[in-house]
Amino acid sequence: MSGFKDVVGHSEIIQYIQNAVTEDKVSHAYILNGEKGSGKKMLAGLFAQTLQCEKGGTEPCYECHSCKQAVSGNHPDIIWVTHEKPNSISVDDIRVQINGDIQVKPYNGKYKIYIVPDADMMTVQAQNALLKTIEEPPAYAIIMLLTANEGMLLPTIKSRCVTLTMKPVPLPLIRQYLMEELQIPDYRADICAAFSQGNVGKAKRLALSDSF
After folding, report:
1. Are the C-beta atoms of 155 and 128 separated by less than 8 Å?
2. Are strands 162-165 and 141-147 parallel, antiparallel or unpaired?
3. Strand order through the sheet with 162-165
4. Which of 8, 10, 149, 153 is 20 to 30 Å from 162 by CA-CA measure?
5. What is the mean pLDDT of each run of 10 residues along the chain (212 residues)?
6. DSSP code of residue 1
């Protein structure tokens, strides 16, 4: 049950998201760009959950029906787009899971949110199919593209999205997280933080690895 306050680093992105929610200036399309383990999925999930939360604050409340649905992975208006092929997202994946579904109004929330992990794996055909939707989305629709390499996205898609870039997290914050949250001894936390190069996911994997 984590909120934005539990995210290690990324304070600028969190501030941006919370301001957008507070001022009701949420864009219809976002790119969250950062390497594997940088926290894109966590931030996208928290962003979606906050937008759908029935209490309407800047953090998910975890008490309302919407938050409970989101935590269980069963929220009808938060759609995580999946793909069958390991290394590509096909035009059919986009047509079926986004384009064919987006005209259906939200079931119980204000928004209908589509989160696309590994969005840089979309084929050119898939991106072109998505482009039409991003150009003229319904007012309630929000699309979040999570990428490790936004350079793989078409310029036409990038120009229509707000890009939030995950920056390396300061090493003292990672060290503190490893010691306080994972009970890693200080000498090991120092080494893992140094090797992580500012990537919390990588630091966590190293700290919990028996072979490191």
Report:
1. no
2. unpaired
3. 78-80, 112-116, 141-147, 29-33, 162-165
4. 8
5. 81 92 92 92 93 89 90 91 91 93 89 95 95 92 95 95 93 91 89 91 88 70
6. -
Structure tokens at 125: 């055909």
CA gap 206, 134 in Å, rounded? 38
- The H or E element that residue 79 is part of is strand 78-80
Angle at 132 between CA 130 and CA 135, to 5 degrees: 110
85 vs 89, 127, 131, 158, CA distance in Å? 7, 16, 21, 24
Separation CA 186–CA 3 (nearest Å): 26
Give the Cα separation of 102 and 157 in Å (integer): 17
Phi–psi pair at 20, nearest 5 degrees? -60, -40
**What confidence score (pLDDT) does residue 3 get?**
83
Which residues are paired to 165 by β-bridges?
Answer: 33
Tokens linked to 170: 């300061």
Any idea what DSSP says for residue 159?
A: T
pLDDT given for residue 212 in this prediction: 66
Q: Please state, in angstroms and rounded to a whole number, the distance separating the CA atoms of residues 212 and 210.
A: 6
The backbone torsions φ and ψ at residue 165, rounded to the nearest 5 degrees and listed phi first, read: -100, 125
d(Cα 205, Cα 64) in Å, to the nearest integer? 33
Q: What pLDDT, on a 0 to 100 scale, did the predictor assign at position 110? A: 86
